[in-house]
Amino acid sequence: MMDQWFGGRPVPVQAVAMVAVDPALRGAGHGSALMRALLMEGRAAGAVLSVLCPATLPFYRRLGYGRGGVTCQWSAPPAAFALQVGMAGTAPLWPADPLDAVPLAALRRPLLADGNGLPERTEALWTLALCPDGEPADLYRNAAGYIAVLPPKDRRLTVADVCLPAGEAMRPALVLLGGYRAQVDRVVWPGGPDDPLALMAGDGVTLDTREDWLVRPLDVVRALEARGYPPGLEESAGFELKDPLISNNCGLIHLEVASSEAKISKLAQVTGSPVQMGIDAFASLFTGHASARALWRAGMLHGEEKMIDRLHRIFCSAPAWMPDRF
């Protein structure tokens, strides 16, 4: 159990890892039964979403999971960062203890509120982020941010974790990465679709991988109440959900948004034609991974254009992404 941030607010989620069935027993429905039981346990424990990094998509789509966001890996030659070497006026980075995540969590908090999909890390997630190979990464930080790198290997420098919410942290990090240009040919790092390191670097930046993580709504009403919404927006919309696994998620929902919060009511009927969608499409809409218009173009959402536009405005947000894998 952990919190994952959407719309500037924490949402309680169930994080699922290492799902497996004995190879000799596969194909008999044991995996589906296992996951259905796990989802019910998560819902009973207070989670409103279930999130995982899939090994296969069709299996989880049948359970109601939809694409929730992305995990990206970027790379660039260290010379792309060397442009910043010699910049003055910023606080340098200093070595820090990678086993003490408390000050790092405080530095990371602005990213949680501004972004979409970032988890509020548990102790286990901090260990995976800063000790990915079982050994602590080299951590450097100042009062504004931090960057953790693994020892260079095969002429590559891997950034294990990075938090650069402002220029006071960004510029010293670029200087640090540029300083490896005599030791490595490539720097690789995790980030989002609009990654700030990629924006600041010079020539040679590439997006090496872009993988989807999945979300399964467990309690739609509580999920809508937990997340935040665009400030200053006052809007309402009606939609009808279909969920073959959790009957309480089904039906007509009227959503009103004001002051970045939502009021939800389950209705017997709504005025006009509500938008209709399955639970997997709602997952992508909820996280901000796909807009209502994009889902409509994909044939995953149906309804009147006016109501689709309302949902588009309500769930308009930053791209959903997270660097963490579990």
Task: Detail the topology: elements first, then pairings.
Blueprint: E1 2-6, E2 9-16, H1 30-44, E3 49-52, H2 57-61, E4 66-76, E5 94-96, H3 102-114, E6 119-120, H4 123-130, E7 138-141, E8 146-149, E9 156-163, H5 167-178, E10 186-191, H6 196-200, E11 206-217, H7 220-226, E12 235-242, E13 251-258, E14 261-267, E15 275-278, H8 279-287, H9 292-297, E16 301-302, H10 305-314
Parallel strand pairs: 2-3, 9-10, 12-15
Antiparallel strand pairs: 1-2, 1-6, 3-11, 4-10, 4-11, 5-7, 7-8, 8-9, 12-13, 13-14, 15-16
Rg, rounded, reads: 21 Å
CATH superfamily of the largest domain: SCP2 sterol-binding domain
CATH class of the largest domain: Alpha Beta
Number of helices: 10
**Which band does the percent of strand residues land in?**
25-35%
Lateral strand order in the biggest sheet: 5-7-8-9-10-4-11-3-2-1-6
Order of helices and strands: EEHEHEEHEHEEEHEHEHEEEEHHEH
CATH topology of the largest domain: Nonspecific Lipid-transfer Protein, Chain A
- Strand tally, please? 16
End-to-end Cα distance, whole Å, is: 12 Å
Query: Can you summarize the main beta sheet?
Result: 11 strands, mixed
Silhouette: globular
Low-confidence stretches: none
CATH architecture field of the largest domain: 2-Layer Sandwich
Total number of domains: 2
> Mean pLDDT, as a whole number?
93
Query: Helices and strands: which structural class?
Result: alpha+beta
Percentage of helical residues? 25-40%
